[in-house]
Design brief:
The protein contains 15 helices and 30 strands. By secondary structure, the chain is α+β, with helices and mostly antiparallel strands.
């Protein structure tokens, strides 16, 4: 290995500029004038081209290593005018364009330390190829910033000559593509951010000019950090939490998640079994108003009535005495059951919530269930309960005109705290299994009862291997193998011989696929055929919304991803699946479960049929 090392005058006074050899390394020593070292320290642009090869670290006037025992040192005293001459030549060779175009290209090139029309144009073309959204935000952000600046200073030409206008481009890209999702709403937020950065740039430049300090990207940093801080503090839903390689990919990833798994973080299960009716929903006409609007009331009905006989007694009501199930897993942090159940026609105005239970969920939010029957608690404060565990019975205590279950979610464990939005993870309505939603007022819904035998057949563990014979028109043509693997993030996936990867998850209520990496394959078709498999025996149907890249061509995917930034509905690819407990059917084909062992027994689509080898 050969390396060149720069030493100060004091450090090389005992050395000559001749090589010193040993068995493993050859070193060359160069005397570096102190004036040059000071120049390097004060003008980092002189050694900018080092960044083309890697990073450097200045420590005790040495350049440190940067590539696994390979050293790059520069005898800069031999070429003191190299960089400045190269930049001057590049500027002289630049093309002439109209000021409105040239100023933008130079500002864009400045971001990459190449303030020229040619460099800016080339980088802009690469950006257009890389991301259409970033291209649009760069153009719109720059010219909107120039327009705002010209309005303030009264000169459009002067605004175009602003050397720090590249901040407008950076702010626009950051606030609608990187840290915020590229949606129409965030586009206007980004323009507001650009307008703020215009004012900041002028204000900072006036102050810094007094001390001869350049502004650089300080307006960009202040604007973007302030926006992120404020939006995070207000729980803004369109923050880009999972930043991907491009804004289009980030938006696609976000939309696939919210359409398939809901856009409400707080999710609970129904607090009962059997069929119940929605008596009050969110923001309803009676008690669910203002800070208490995120709550649900459920009653039981038969033949359009909630009671039998004349409904004079609480026991006449079908809901009275029915079991209440834990809607989440967590600890009991509050409970009471000593209040009497009201006589029908009377309510308790003092103890509005009646007997109650408050559970702190494993996810950190709290669930309150009210109007519980007197002396019916099956738990006590401090107990840990699993979801769907019987915890009490439905009663008529508190401000309750008739027996019903009241449920709400909140951020603190205080009785009657302000409510927060939630949704139900799954429920059945009219033979449809609905995921991550809320039923409408008057709807009759029932909870999904999980079948553990189905769950166990889809409980794949690391290194499980499933082999299938592949038939085309019932003729054996190939054999494929799907192996269970795990990545560095503990995410499990199926992988075939071509390294295509299909990511899956089993949450003890359903098995579902959520990501695919690779080309056209049987695994990609499996995503289409069975995006999720609920653990139920009941024959029903459900809707699922597949990621665009699974069902569309590459060109269609690019187009839909771009249009989705204008309207999210363009991304919504809805498909209907029918499930009978052992098989799942759709327009794509069908999948059958093994009767008494793990894995899928067969996968069928078009003329292709995969049969599991025993």
């Amino acid at each position: 290995m050969t390396s060149l090392q720069i030493l100060t005058q004091e450090e090389v006074k005992n050395f000559n500029a001749v090589p010193t050899l040993n068995s493993t390394e050859q070193k060359y020593y160069f005397k570096i004038p102190n004036s040059l070292l000071e120049s390097i320290e004060t003008n980092m642009n002189q050694i900018y081209f080092i960044a083309l090869f890697g990073y450097f670290k200045k420590e005790n006037k040495f350049f440190d290593k940067f590539d696994n025992q390979i050293y790059l040192y520069i005898a800069y005293n031999k070429y003191p005018e190299f960089l400045s001459t190269s930049i001057d030549n590049a500027i002289h060779l630049d093309i002439t364009l109209p000021l409105a175009v040239s100023s933008f290209l130079k500002s864009f090139g400045t971001i990459f330390f190449l303030p020229s029309n040619i460099a800016g144009g080339l980088m802009l073309l690469l950006t257009l190829f890389f991301s259409r959204i970033i291209f649009i935000m760069a153009v719109s952000g720059y010219y909107f910033g120039v327009l705002v600046h010209s309005y303030f200073i009264g000169s459009y030409i002067q605004a175009l000559h602003d050397p720090y206008a590249f901040n407008y481009i950076l702010v626009a890209i950051a606030l609608c593509g990187v840290f915020l999702l590229p949606t129409l709403k965030n586009f206007f937020l980004a323009l507001i951010g650009v307008a703020i950065s215009v004012v900041l740039t002028d204000a900072i430049s006036i102050f810094f000019h007094y001390y001869a300090i350049p502004v650089f990207t300080l307006p960009f940093n202040i604007t973007v950090i302030t926006f992120i801080f404020i939006l995070s503090a207000t729980y803004y839903k369109e923050l880009n939490i999972d930043i991907k390689s491009t804004p289009e990919y980030s938006l696609s990833n976000y939309l696939a998640k919210i359409f398939r798994f809901g856009n409400v973080i707080t999710q609970i299960s129904l607090p009962f079994s059997g069929k119940w009716n929605v008596y009050q929903a969110f923001d309803d006409i009676w008690t669910h108003k203002n800070q208490f609007k995120y709550a649900y009331d459920f009653v039981k009905m038969k033949d359009g009535k909630t009671y039998k006989n004349n409904g004079l007694y609480a026991s006449d009501y079908f809901a009275f005495g029915e079991s209440i199930l834990a809607p989440v897993s967590g600890y009991i942090v509050g409970a009471r059951d000593d209040l009497i159940d009201n006589i029908i026609g009377e309510v308790d105005h003092i103890n509005n919530w009646g007997n109650y239970i408050i559970i702190k969920s494993d996810a950190g939010f709290f669930v309150e269930i009210s109007h519980v029957m007197q002396y019916s608690l099956k738990i006590k404060v401090g107990d840990y309960v699993q979801v769907a565990t019987i915890i009490a019975k439905c009663g008529n205590s508190g401000y309750s005109p008739e027996p019903h279950i009241h449920i709400q979610t909140q951020t603190i464990g205080t009785l009657g705290a302000f409510t927060i939005e939630f949704c139900f993870g799954e429920y059945i309505e009219k033979e449809e299994l609905i995921f991550h939603n809320i039923p409408k007022k008057g709807s009759c819904v029932s909870a999904m009862i999980s079948d553990r035998s189905i769950s166990s057949r889809l409980h794949f563990i690391l290194d499980d291997c499933f082999t299938y014979d592949v038939y085309e028109n019932e003729i054996l043509v190939d054999t494929v193998e799907f192996k269970v693997k795990m990545n560095d993030y503990s995410q499990f996936y199926l992988e075939d011989q071509d390294a295509n990867q299909l990511y899956f998850y089993n949450d003890h209520k359903q098995f579902y696929f959520y990501n695919y990496k690779g080309g056209e394959s049987h695994l990609k078709w499996l995503f289409k055929l069975a995006p999720r498999i609920p653990f139920v025996r009941t024959e029903l149907f459900f809707k699922d919304y597949l990621p665009v890249y699974i069902v569309k061509s590459k060109f269609q995917t690019l187009l839909i991803e771009f249009l989705s930034s204008l309207n999210k509905k363009f991304y919504k690819q809805e498909f209907i699946y029918k499930f009978d407990g052992s098989s799942i059917y759709s327009v794509f084909g069908e999948v059958h479960l093994e009767a008494a062992s793990k894995a899928l027994a067969s996968i069928k689509y078009n003329t292709t049929h995969l049969r599991r080898k025993k």
